[in-house]
Amino acid sequence: MRILDRSVYVGPSLHARFPVIRLELDLGELEQWPTGRLGPAFVDALAEALPGLQEHGCSYRVPGGFLRRMREDEGTWLGHVLEHVAIELQNIAGEEVTFGKTRSAGRPGVYTVVYEYEQRDEGIAAGELGLRLLSSLLPENIRPADSVPEGWSWPEARDEFIRFAQRRALGPSTTSLVKAAELRGIPWLRLNDQSLVQLGHGKYQQRIQATVTGRTPHISVELASDKEETNKILAGLGLPVPIQELVQSEGQAVRAANRIGFPVVTKPYNGNHGRGISIRLTTDAEVAQGFNVAREHSRSVIVETFLEGDDHRLLVVNGELVAATRRTPGHVVGDGEHTIAQLVDIVNQDPRRGVGHEKVLTRLELDAQAGKMLERVGLQQDSVPEKDRVVYLRTTANLSTGGTATDVTDVIHPDNREMAERAVRAIGLDVGGVDFLSKNIAESYRTIGGGICEVNAAPGFRMHVAPSEGTPRDVAHPVIDMLFPQGSPSRVPISAITGTNGKTTTARMLAHITKMGGYTPGLTTTDGVYIDGQRTVQGDMTGPVSARMVLADPQIDMAVLETARGGLLRAGMGVREVNVGAVLNVQADHLGLKGIDTLEQLAEVKRIVVEVATDCAVLNADDPLVLKMSGHTEAKSICYVTMNPQHTLVREHIRAGGRACALEAGVNGQMITLYDRGSHIPLLWTHLIPATLEGRATHNVQNAMFAAAMAFSLGIKLDAIRQGLRTFDSTFFQAPGRLNVFNEHPFKVLFDYGHNAHAVAVMADLARRLDVNGRRIVVLAGPGDRRDEDLVAIANAVAGKFDHYICRRDDNLRNRADDEVPRIQAKALREAGVSEEAISVIPDEQEAINAALHMGRTGDLLLIFADALTRSWKQITKFKPAGAPAATAPTNGHARTSESDSRGAAGVPLAGEGPPAQFSLEGLIRDERGIRLAPDAED
User: Fold this and answer.
1) pTM of the full predicted structure?
2) CA-CA distance, 137 to 49, in Å (whole number)?
């Protein structure tokens, strides 16, 4: 029984709309051992190890259903059992996860196990520990070899797992704030492995770290950490504080205690969480010992008056007291029968107590500090305290050391409430906790005394949201309301675009439109992340990591996410929902990879984008697979995009008041037209959009229609949409590798990244529609990880449409031989009727492009499909035709891309690249396949 493969999905995926882990589990010989055959002993042992499994309903949907399923005659298979064990392990670590499903992977004994997770590392560890637990419970004769280390102990492994999870979990205070934000509909991102969290997106974001907010003044945190200065400030305002002195040595501590008067307290100068505090010290020796304990946490130590009374934490948020709690140090109560060690065990049996903070209370520990407390009152661990005697094991009342909390918010005296609020305001904290000692919180400190021990920045919330006794208080919502007053924005509009072809151009068009509309867009594409038009990260950024980058940027107020198949299959989407989701098309590409073998399966992957759309799903009505997706979205509206004005379904949709974007013929050409709620809105003539090459590039006409439909659905004004489309052209600068045109040579060059049959066919058809006085030459390739039939389909898409064909391969061979891809495509061209003389096989991309450029003559058209875009574009623009001066771009480093573009807009600065490969006409020979390198070029 072993894990063959693991995928961690951070967002919506094929398996769920929330984070899940997928395991491919091979049971091996254990396929023959379902739980029914393993017998009751196995089931009972598992239920004993994880009692919480009794609450799992499984297919019966009632508590106990899963164990009932395991005990049936046939039982269930261990893959299904592992799913439930991984879920329950996370439950005992404090996570609220419930979802799981297990299915056959289509091979004997192999299962796909999917389960929900909250923390990535914890979720992975839960699967691995669950596998080990199951192996340990199997009979030895069928237990997989080396599956359980010698000396392995389940209780120890369980507790270590809980501690492991606790170290990576958000703390209880941060968790409460995150949950409060979710209830308000405020999105959040975890920014590190601790408790730094971003609430909200883009320019609306606020940050918290535990209960310190982005608005908490640094100087106030410093003051709260400086206990001596805090004491002086509060005393100066007439607030009740103990007398204290700051000391640096034992002798100073003893002398200070005698001046102040016994009993006293010693504590670190800048400690927290009750660490290093010693209370009720009555002798010089105890003071010296207390000094040394405090010195372990701080170079300076405070000696102060010991105040009688119960320890209270008064929580103030935004100037108002929101909760008050009485805290009691960890203790046991004698019964006259059990020893102190036994009483601790009895207390720890309380199901509310856990290893760390995964539960309401923390287990008591008989450690060195507890030993000192017992020694002080003349007891030991094996002592039997008399009935009702309270034996304290800690000096401080922190919940993290086993203390308990009782809510007293409803009984606090108004004077004490005002005192706490004044104290926190005096220090300047937006969220502060006042430690106040009082014999009775219901009576005024003015009457019975009491005093403020500390004012804490980053006060813990656990004691308030889950007290041991009393009413839980919702203390997180006041913090969220302070950061995000009701009615203030927290989200930026998010649009996601997917499809086999056109998504990069459409995403860039949409981002450009939003910029024309006054927004600051964050854009993810196949060549990088762009913030307000500037590339900040280079590379293929179409997955969840790039989405997170954009949404975390404090500048943006609009997100445009190109969403690729690979990212969806590898890790899911980077956001739980989008405002507008669009699917442009579903065409044959990447089939045979990652378990996606058919167009229908590919459509299911791309459908995720519209399944998570909330406001509008924009769908290609001309693509049957995309059209079917309309039944799988819960968006408020659907906008169909069609280039067929006679489309029956779209016509009925429009008549019913639906939204659509259609291409309509008119006297002046073709008009992109919007329909919405019965309104007919002519938007723009296609020939006025530079990226369409006067309407001839029909694929960019369709891309423009999608960009317009999405912009309209995002609420962008029509004038901004028109302006955006009219100023977006297919230059290398605005859309690298997407129908770039270079006109500075005697011949015209079309430059494109098309890498599947559909994209190549679109460009080939465009090349046929353009007026060409000379020859048409194409440089053709296909990614090495595509199936042979896909490479053949790419070749067939251009066959018969050009005068000469140069077949090459990409730099990344993807496990192919050096010339395997071009040989496959050359063979396909010959089989399609292309003559041998019209085909050249030049595997290297730079050499193939140089060969095409040298072939070009006045009036020719070169269509170059490139992979290394920047390098190849530089190669084209820097090429020097024979007998002519080198083609040069304008002095700003841009190249004109169409004869009608008199503004000189466009290309991209080609800096930082090495010189293109040198190519000489010398050594070129012509054989039966056309032009190739010689004399040492391989056949």
Assistant:
1) 0.80
2) 10
